[in-house]
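In this section we walk through a basic example: taking a raw amino acid sequence and producing a predicted 3D structure, encoded as discrete structure tokens. The instruction is simple. Fold the sequence below.
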Amino acid sequence: MSNITVWTTPNCNQCKQTIRFFEKDGISPRINDLSAPENLDKLREIKAAGHHQAPYVETPTDAWSGLRPDRIVQAVSQERQATPSPSLQSPTHTRDMST
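The resulting token sequence is shown next.
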């Protein structure tokens, strides 16, 4: 699971493109709909911070609104650095060398 959240609105082309950019690079962000009643407080928080455009993207180190390919590239790079590559992880099996 990704540490990136994309807050969207219905019929938002920039939202769809942002999600596609992440997915193209192998990142599956959490996607939340800002128009859902349970997200009203989040919408107010985002607007209070000065953001008035969807999507609103949150990463562990950054947040922005609108379609920002430059920021997406940075977020993907940081996400990859934070998640170890499966080929670099230690093996899940061990061999008994005592026999």
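Looking at the output, two observations stand out. The chain has a mean pLDDT of 88. Helices lie at 13-24, 40-48, 69-82. In the next section we compare this with other chains.
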